[in-house]
Task: inverse folding
């Protein structure tokens, strides 16, 4: 079983991202689970969402404390939320930012973090270019697919299209594909 | 077998469940409210104009009769003897009397 | 308007039948009888907890010859909403009247929320409030519709009190504020007017509110034979204006035929007895007269 | 068809398959998604029902009471304070023998206000005459609602059924659920509601009469019999469902790895999943441990529980509610059932945990097992408290 924790702000679509991730895992033939942090948080407040994927039915229901992957939707969170807490040694911390690693790493202070597990990714830049809006969850889904290999980009795109309807779905799927290509080395246009 | 059956309570009782919950329509007729009465009306049939007010005003709906024949009367089984009919009769054609015990 | 009640057998076929255990001279049972004569057998009724429910359905007896349901004190309007919804979805609503009934406490106090919800959602229900101005079923405690200076067991008169020190809540105006299609105030003292108003509701779709003044023998403390007389005096003094309103606007009022001083009305009732003891009581009666005069002016009753 | 559904979607989808005619609800977290989905179905014409948007839970329950008395299938859902506000009406629905199905998205009750999960709300209605079934996961929540109508509408039952679904933990969780796609099969399993007594102008009965001392206790006796006797009907409903749809998650109780167990964890609802994972781990290290799931809390399957527990040493009961002034609710009832059968070889320990949404982790459960095996007759002790917080002055 692999566990994913998503950090975002209320209104940024963290829960949507977790649920699309779960649906995509399912399309790939896996069992999945996704749930929010059950908060009463309002727009702007730090929130979390969780997803699990496994080859077998998932029974456990507790929140995710030792994630395999952490996705940070908003880089400003890293100063106030311990986003890396519990991350497995071989885990990956994916942060939406254009800042250098050196600057980012300072924010973790005493929290020991393996530099090689941090992956910085300019989701906002790609989203702005393709969607024209600072909505990064679909872009991050494409990046997640490319970085982790846990889910196929086709499934991600299919579920994005199913969620957002034909017009909005297509453009969001394009954003996911662009993010996927970016990670895979095709940074043309960025 | 280890399990002790609690036969009395758990015995399947397939009775109609309406006991205490659902009543038959109009079943109150079995309750003869004439026993409430300490006074009883007498319809004198002397000056009756057939205005129907005694029928309108009777809280129990026990007054009956005909506008044309002006022969109103009441159901003795249910009349509670409130005296509204006598009080409201515009021509004082109804009088109340104490019930002889 | 009366159904043909020609023989003794006819009296036994009424939709609200005799044999109920209401008090001798009960004006509420009179009003129910009159209302049912108009609504006819295609009616489903709900009753809030209260005198009517208790005296008409003592298991295994029921005075109702129509489908009738009681559930709780405060939910008569909500139960009626559910019935109306069920009739609508099953296509049985056409030709069927849903009647929701409660006393003044079940309407204006504990049941006001459910009633407001029913109004606002627009259910096709006739709601009737039998107003006897206190919680009579539990023994004459004060309600929001208890009139000014009335004695009740929880607003007793005493050395320094004249009884209920608040004016009667004006419930019909609350109903009218919902802009429902029809609001009417009637009285057990005027059965033909009452039946006319009930008949009118049959032709109106949507929520209807009818408030009926029903004197209460033991609560108001008078002799049973005066039920009609007292109800009429309430109207003729101006203390209980009878009127109709549509979509929040008054469309007709019942004019006072012979104006009487409120004293005539008050003195017949034990609940106002304390006002007749001394000079201070006289001043209170003046205040009640002022309420009546204001009503007369506001509704144009003369 | 297998789909990934949020718990609330799964529930609303199964309700759609049962074709209720009148739905009435008042929004309260975490029930909201269920009724939002249902109102959307009504708005889209996918479900032909009257959706009555009421001004309170009291009226929501009253609307379904009135509609149910008319003989139509009804549905409502609520949680926590909303359920407590409905309580008066729910006692009435049960007393009037109306087959209403309601979902409780289990949530803690005030004060302090908490929107998060525990089972205190439904526990507060355990004496109401309402059948209470508790779902372990979203699949079971889906299936249980269809079974709920089957049970409620059985002519020998005619009682409301409350389906308890852990708020957020199930209602807001997306997971794989296998839905039924053939509504005809559901109609076959669940024929149209046919009530003997309804509010019908052609057959005018009076409902909700006054029960004088001369009839009241007999009326309640019949109600008591009805809920006690419906155990076999709950079992039948589950078995028939298995036959028709091939799915089964237990009827009154369910056992997991209990055959040779000397320690058993007893619980209800969504926490069972986490418990089963822990038990698997302990089994691998050679520990003889199993799980007893209570699926029907009311009627309480005392005989079935005794039969399942009679040969074990330790029963560790996880309580997600507490009877203040007494202790654990479930553990108390289990102990009572064992006593009735004169079995004193089972040590029953009940621990209150997870109140107000406190996450129950595998480590919590592991620590609890280690502790509980050394203790005897624990009656609703609070487990996993933050002592630092308790001793802090605010």
Result:
């Amino acid at each position: 079983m692999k566990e994913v924790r998503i950090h975002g702000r209320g209104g940024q679509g963290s829960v949507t991202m977790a649920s699309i991730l779960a649906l995509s895992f399912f399309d790939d033939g896996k069992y999945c689970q996704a749930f929010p942090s059950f908060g009463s948080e309002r727009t702007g407040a730090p929130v979390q969402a969780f997803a699990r994927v496994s080859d077998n039915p998932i029974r456990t229901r507790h929140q995710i404390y030792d994630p395999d992957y952490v996705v940070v939707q908003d880089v400003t969170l890293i100063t106030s939320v311990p986003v890396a807490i519990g991350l497995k040694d071989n885990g990956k911390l994916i942060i939406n930012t254009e800042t250098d690693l050196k600057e980012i790493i300072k924010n973790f202070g005493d929290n020991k973090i393996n530099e090689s597990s941090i992956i910085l990714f300019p989701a906002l830049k790609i989203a702005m270019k393709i969607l024209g809006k600072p909505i990064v969850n679909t872009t991050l889904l494409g990046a997640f697919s490319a970085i982790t290999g846990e889910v196929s980009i086709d499934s991600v795109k299919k579920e994005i299209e199913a969620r957002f309807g034909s017009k909005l779905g297509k453009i969001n799927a394009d954003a996911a594909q662009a993010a996927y290509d970016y990670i895979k080395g095709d940074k043309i246009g960025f | 077998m280890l399990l002790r059956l609690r036969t009395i309570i758990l015995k399947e009782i397939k009775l109609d469940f309406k006991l205490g919950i659902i009543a038959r329509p109009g079943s109150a007729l079995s309750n003869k409210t004439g026993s409430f009465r300490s006074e009883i009306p007498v319809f004198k049939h002397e000056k009756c104009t057939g205005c129907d007010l005694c029928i309108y005003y009777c809280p129990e709906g026990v007054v009956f009769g005909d506008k044309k024949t002006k022969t109103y009367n009441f159901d003795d089984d249910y009349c509670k003897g409130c005296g509204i009919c006598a009080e409201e009769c515009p021509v004082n054609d109804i009088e109340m009397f104490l019930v002889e015990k | 308007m009366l159904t043909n009640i020609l023989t003794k057998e006819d009296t036994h076929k009424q939709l609200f039948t005799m044999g109920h255990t209401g008090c001798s001279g009960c004006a509420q049972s009179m009003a129910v009888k009159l209302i049912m004569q108009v609504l006819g057998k295609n009616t489903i009724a709900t009753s809030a907890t209260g005198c009517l429910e208790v005296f008409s359905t003592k298991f295994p007896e029921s005075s109702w010859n129509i489908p009738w349901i009681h559930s709780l004190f405060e939910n008569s309007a909500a139960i009626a909403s559910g019935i109306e919804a069920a009739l609508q979805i099953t296509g049985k609503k056409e030709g069927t009247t849903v009647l929701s009934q409660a006393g003044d406490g079940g309407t204006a106090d504990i049941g006001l929320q459910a009633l407001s919800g029913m109004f606002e959602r627009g259910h096709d229900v006739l709601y009737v409030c039998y107003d006897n101005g206190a919680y009579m079923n539990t023994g004459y405690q004060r309600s929001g519709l208890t009139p000014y200076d009335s004695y009740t067991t929880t607003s007793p008169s005493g050395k320094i009190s004249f009884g209920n020190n608040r004016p009667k809540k004006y419930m019909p105006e609350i109903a009218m504020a919902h802009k429902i299609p029809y609001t009417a105030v009637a009285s057990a003292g005027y059965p033909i007017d009452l039946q006319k108003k009930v008949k009118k509701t049959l032709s109106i779709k949507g929520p209807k509110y009818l408030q009926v003044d029903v004197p209460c023998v033991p609560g108001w403390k008078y002799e049973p034979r005066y039920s009609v007389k007292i109800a009429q005096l309430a109207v003729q003094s101006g203390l209980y204006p009878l009127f109709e309103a549509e979509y929040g606007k008054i469309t007709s009022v019942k004019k006072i035929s012979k104006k009487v001083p409120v004293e005539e009305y008050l003195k017949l009732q034990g609940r106002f007895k304390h006002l007749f003891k001394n000079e201070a009581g006289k001043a209170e009666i003046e205040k009640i007269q002022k309420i009546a005069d204001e009503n007369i002016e506001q509704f144009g009753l003369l | 068809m297998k789909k990934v559904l949020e718990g609330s979607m799964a529930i609303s989808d199964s309700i759609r398959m049962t074709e209720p005619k009148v739905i009435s609800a008042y929004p309260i977290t975490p029930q909201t998604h269920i009724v939002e989905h249902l109102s959307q179905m009504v708005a889209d014409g996918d479900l032909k029902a009257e959706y009555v948007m009421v001004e309170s839970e009291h009226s929501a329950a009253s609307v379904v009471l009135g509609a149910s008395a008319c003989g139509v299938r009804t549905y409502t859902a609520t949680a926590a304070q909303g359920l407590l506000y409905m309580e008066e009406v729910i006692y009435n629905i049960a007393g009037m023998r109306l087959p209403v199905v309601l979902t409780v998205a289990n949530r803690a009750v005030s004060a302090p206000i908490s929107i998060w999960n525990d089972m205190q709300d439904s526990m507060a209605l355990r004496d109401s005459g309402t059948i209470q079934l508790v779902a372990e996961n979203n699949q079971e929540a889906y299936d249980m609602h269809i079974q709920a109508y089957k049970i409620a509408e059985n002519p020998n039952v005619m009682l409301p059924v409350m389906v308890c679904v852990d708020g957020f933990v199930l209602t807001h969780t997306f997971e794989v659920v296998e839905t039924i796609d053939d509504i005809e099969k559901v109609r076959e399993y669940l024929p149209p509601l046919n009530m003997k007594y309804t509010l019908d102008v052609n057959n005018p009965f009076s409902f909700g009469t006054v029960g004088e001392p001369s009839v009241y206790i007999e009326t309640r006796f019949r109600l008591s019999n009805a809920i006690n006797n419906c155990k076999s009907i709950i079992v039948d409903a589950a078995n028939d469902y298995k036959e028709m749809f091939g799915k089964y998650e237990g009827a009154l109780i369910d056992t997991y790895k209990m055959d040779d167990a000397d320690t058993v964890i007893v619980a209800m609802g969504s926490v069972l999943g986490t418990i089963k994972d822990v038990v698997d781990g302990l089994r691998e290290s050679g520990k003889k441990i199993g799980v007893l799931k209570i699926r029907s809390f009311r009627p309480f399957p005392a005989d079935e529980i005794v039969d399942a527990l009679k040969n074990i040493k330790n029963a560790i009961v996880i309580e997600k509610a507490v009877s203040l002034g007494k202790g654990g609710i479930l553990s108390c009832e289990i102990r009572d059932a064992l006593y009735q059968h004169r079995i004193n070889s089972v040590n029953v320990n009940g621990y209150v945990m997870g109140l107000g949404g406190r996450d129950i982790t595998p480590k919590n459960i592991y620590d609890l097992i280690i502790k509980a095996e050394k203790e005897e007759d624990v009656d609703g002790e609070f487990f996993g408290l933050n002592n630092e917080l308790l001793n802090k002055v605010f």
Q: What stands out?
A: The mean pLDDT of chain C is 96. The radius of gyration of chain C is 19 Å. The first helix of chain C runs from residue 8 to 11. Chain C has twelve helices and ten strands.
